[in-house]
Design goal:
The chain has 318 residues and is α+β, with helices and mostly antiparallel strands. It has two domains: 3-208, no CATH class; 221-313, no CATH class. The protein is 21% helix and 22% strand. The strands form six sheets. Strands 1, 2, 3, 8, 10 and 11 form a six-stranded mixed beta sheet that branches. Strands 4-5 form a two-stranded antiparallel ribbon. The radius of gyration is 48 Å and the shape is elongated. Residues 1-21, 212-217 and 231-291 have low confidence and may be disordered.
Length: 318
């Protein structure tokens, strides 16, 4: 079974390519086409993104730029380099992230998709013409056609103008993906295939302009405590010997009383019923009440009754 047959049977998702989600900016560096035939513009285009190739900055410059002007140019001595090859690349689909790429297979699939037919229906003379073209199409640098590209300075200027990268110190470097598009036109099949080669490198002296959005997040729980209620503040503490119970009530429910409200020995601020006493004689200081509810003359009257020896005082009106 041929390589094309295996690829054709396994992968049916060539047009559902998956692009990696990345914040690295990209720029179209160049467009290479094998023909400038006007009628080819009527052909339906199919597009495929190849997996990203990572290059250091010096190799990237050596491959694609020349002269002091750094104009776009594919180095002839690197034509057979793997990163330029049309037969050694890979692409991703929803089924497989690393599928081998072959330009001939992609053109045939494009034909099948465009005309809703099977590759077995391709005429024999068209197959011979396709094989002849593929013999010459080995690399991006071996294609005889039309190409247009940006110089390195033009690329950097475009990236800076779009705020994708910003000027920085020489210890910094900006990650950028440069895209070289190959538009291959097969007139016998009447298809136009666009293959995007993606090269990522780091440009020294610049840095990526990553915009980080700051959200107005709510304060942490420790800084967002509600004031405790009065009841929560009234806690009880116990002495080590558990002999007594002490409360820290802060008398906020009670009104402040003056000296006239209390006697020396005891307090009884709610007397409204019957006062009973034994035959023991008590002086005036044993009866204490609030000045707000007890008249002074009434205190004297009760004291005289107690001194007279009566054992029970009935219906004392307060």
């Amino acid at each position: 079974m041929s390589e094309f047959s295996k690829l054709h049977n396994v992968d049916q998702g060539v047009f559902n390519t998956v692009k990696g989600i990345s914040s690295v900016p990209s720029i179209n560096l160049a467009l290479i086409t094998n023909s400038n035939d006007v009628k080819s513009n009527l052909f339906k285009e199919t597009i495929l993104d190849l997996n990203t190739i990572y290059l250091n900055y010096s190799d990237f410059n050596l491959l694609f730029f020349r002269g002091y002007g750094n104009s776009f140019h594919i180095n002839p001595s690197a034509v057979n380099n793997r990163v330029l090859s049309l037969t050694q690349q890979t692409y991703s689909t929803t089924h497989d992230p690393n599928i081998p790429f072959y330009l001939k297979d992609f053109l045939i699939k494009s034909y099948e998709k465009t005309f809703s037919t099977n590759s077995l229906n391709i005429p024999i003379h068209t197959k011979i013409s396709l094989d002849r073209d593929m013999f010459l199409a080995k690399s991006l640098g071996s294609l005889n056609g039309v190409q247009i590209g940006l110089s390195l300075d033009e690329c950097i200027n475009s990236l800076v103008s779009n705020n994708d990268i910003i000027k920085s110190d020489f210890d910094s470097s900006a990650k950028v993906i440069f895209v070289i598009s190959l538009k291959y036109i097969q007139t016998d099949l009447q298809v136009s295939a666009v293959v995007n080669f993606r090269y990522q490198t780091e440009i020294p002296g610049y840095s990526n302009n990553d915009i980080i959005m700051t959200l107005d997040l709510p304060k942490s729980y420790s800084n967002d405590k509600k004031p405790a209620s009065n009841l929560a503040e009234k806690q009880f503490y116990y002495e080590k010997d558990d002999a007594s119970e002490i409360s820290d009530y802060k008398n906020d429910e009670y009104t402040e009383l003056d000296d006239r409200s209390f006697s020396i020995n005891s307090v009884n601020s709610g007397i409204s019923g019957t006062i009973a006493n034994s035959h023991n004689v008590a002086d005036e200081e044993t009866i204490v009440t609030s000045s707000n509810t007890l008249d002074t003359s009434m205190v004297k009257e009760v004291s005289e009754i107690i001194k007279s020896g009566d054992s029970v005082v009935n219906s004392v009106s307060w």
